[in-house]
Design a protein that fits this description.
By secondary structure, this protein is an alpha/beta fold. It has a single domain, classed as Flavodoxin domain (Rossmann fold), CATH 3.40.50.360. Helices cover 32% and strands 19% of the residues. It is built from 5 helices and 5 strands, in the order βαβαβαβαβα. A 5-stranded parallel sheet has the order 2-1-3-4-5, sandwiched between helices. Strand 3, helix 3 and strand 4 form a beta-alpha-beta unit. The longest helix is centred in the N-terminal third of the chain and has 14 residues. The protein binds flavin mononucleotide. The site of flavin mononucleotide has 17 residues, from loops.
């Protein structure tokens, strides 16, 4: 099983990476191939809304989204991982999501149809409501893209420079087993 992680945090040693690593380790133990994409380090231009991609799935912009797109097409499982930025995903992840319009064809059928998807999020507030707008956005997006939402873990109350609470790591390990 091929997995690609769209990692939307700019921090390789921050909060979100901790739950991402727990999922990645759990999946590797099950024999999955896991590819991590540090979106912050990639060149992803904003979608220009020209719809030139719709007929063939080829975007006019020549940047790293070409490879990201290929890895997503080649994967069985796609992981969207992000800190909450103003009640939504980070800009790094949102740029990649917008460019994902190229996964739709003329009939609004999805070139990603049938793949599984998981979301992982962290935030600072000690309140799970904080995740709701992003969760709603993910669900509607995945419905349109024909992706099967296979689970999510949200870790609130994250403090910069501190370890994520064990309960969230446990939740992620459980999710990795269940997928
Ligand atoms: C631009 C920005 C916006 C943020 N917006 C929110 C927010 O709306 N709610 C919240 O609880 N935390 C917010 N945070 C805090 C981060 O979600 C939190 O610190 C997260 O765990 C950081 O993950 P990271 O270490 O992987 O980058 C924000 C942080 C930044 C930098």
């Amino acid at each position: 099983m091929e997995t690609v992680i769209l990692f939307g945090s700019p921090h390789r040693d921050g909060n979100t990476i901790q739950i991402v690593n727990a999922l990645s380790d759990g999946l590797k133990q099950k024999g999955y191939n896991v590819r991590m994409l540090y979106l912050n380090d990639l060149n992803i231009r904003p979608c220009q809304g020209c719809y030139a991609c719709i007929p063939k799935g080829t975007c006019k912009i020549n940047d790293d989204m070409k490879d990201i797109r290929k890895y997503m097409i080649d994967s069985d499982l796609i992981v969207y991982a992000t800190p909450v930025y103003w009640y939504g995903p980070s800009g790094q992840l949102k740029l990649a999501m917008d460019r994902g319009i190229s996964f739709l064809d003329n009939e609004y059928s999805s070139r990603l149809k049938g793949k599984k998807v998981v979301t992982l999020m962290t935030c600072a507030e000690d309140n799970t409501d904080t995740f709701q707008p992003a969760l709603d956005m993910f669900k509607k997006t995945f419905d349109l893209l024909g992706l099967e939402y296979a689970g999510s873990v949200e870790a609130p109350g994250c403090v910069v420079g501190k370890k994520i609470k064990k309960e969230f790591i446990q939740k992620v390990k459980k999710l990795a087993k269940a997928i």
